Amino acid sequence: MSITRRTLLSGTASLAGLAAIDLRSLAQEPFSVITPPSFAPVPMPRTAVAKALYAEIGPATWTELNHHLQTVNFNIQTNGLRHISGSDGTFLTGYPSNEFYDWDLYFENIYLSYYGVGRFCYTNLKEFLNRQQPDGYISRSLINRRDRQHFKPFLAQLVILGARQDNNNFEWLRGNYYDRLVKYMVKWFSYDDDHNGLPVWNSADAAGTDNQWSRAAGLSSFTVEGVDLASYLVRELRAMAVIATALGLKADSKGFNEHADAVIKLINEVFWDEQQGMYFDRNEKTGQRVYVKSATNFMPLFAGAATPARAKRMIDEHMLNPDEFWLAYPVASYAKTEPDYYQGAHFDRGTHKECNWRGPSWLPTNYMIFQGLRSYGYNDIARDLATRCFNMAVVKNPVLREYYNAETGEGLGKDRFWGFTDLYYGMLLEFMLHYDSSNLEKPVLPIISQNLGVQFPDVSKI
User: Fold this and answer.
1) Can you tell me whether residue 413 is helix, strand or coil?
2) What predicted TM-score, i.e. pTM, was given to this entire model?
3) In 82-175, where does DSSP find H-type helix?
4) What percent of the chain stands above pLDDT 70?
């Protein structure tokens, strides 16, 4: 479906049953629907690639995949598309807890792009930008604002994801919104007290790796120059260069690309440890590296910042090490050798309340590692990773979960979830199609609807 500028900038009509409500007044996790009232007939594969996937996974798993897709799409449509009082448009969330986050929005919209649904790249995005503070700061959550937790560097990448599905329309950004994006980027590089060019995370929580305190420290500590943060900023600078080029701002584009090159140089000078063969975060206050082995340390692969030789060492010596990251359902979010590594989640009143990033398998890092492996030519490993993730999400678990035990594949966290984890349903298909939905330069394709015949519910009237 082609999106016009008018639909991007309005979107105030509502779908039947989609009420305009103040989300702050709702109780936590009010939804209970998991599966749709009935499943549509399972379509047979449409393309040669789909037929190859069908042959690989078999008819039973093909049906199970179809039911998983219908279930998560039903939940997105009925529970994940929300209205916020006082704001125009329909907003997307993967959480029943009525919150809207930063990088979640990027990954959730990649999943919707599998169906050619691009309009929700813009609604949350515009709301975040409209709430920007004069100094460029944008809270990484919409409802319960996070104190001094700047929106993770995925806004410009989200812009591109939407524009590629809208006839490469970047024109709506010209002026106000482009200026806001520039201010948001400048704000990121202000978190740099030692002025070495590498900003710090607010905390592990702000990094999206909630309890990795031994790596990225506690709330509002502003201590750690993250390998992951620098890598995300490289991609975000590249995305800003693409946007500037589309708007005819050649000098800006050149500046963003040069800045990305400079950050890559710093990643390799500051974070790389030759003895251990891995990139490590740095404590800005002490000047010392933080020798914690996290899946986030592989993010230079996603950014294209690692040299081929360093990529090989990281992958061979650490990622594929079964005593560190390559568990039964990789990639573990912490190396098994870390003293605070553990699987599972702590309980609160009999319910999994913790977001444990000290060992379990999480989609954001797995997806970015998967794409990084492919870009460096490690296709066999990327396929193995995509296959294990597919089996974990489709075969091992009846419904989508927030994250998974990397040793057993057991689903953990929220079991009423329709968020970023749904990308596990498409990674193997991406691989078989030689397609990368995160690519900043190439078209974005509706690979599930084209190949599997599953359609997302009609959102044209929202």
Assistant:
1) coil
2) 0.93
3) 102-113, 120-130, 155-164
4) 91
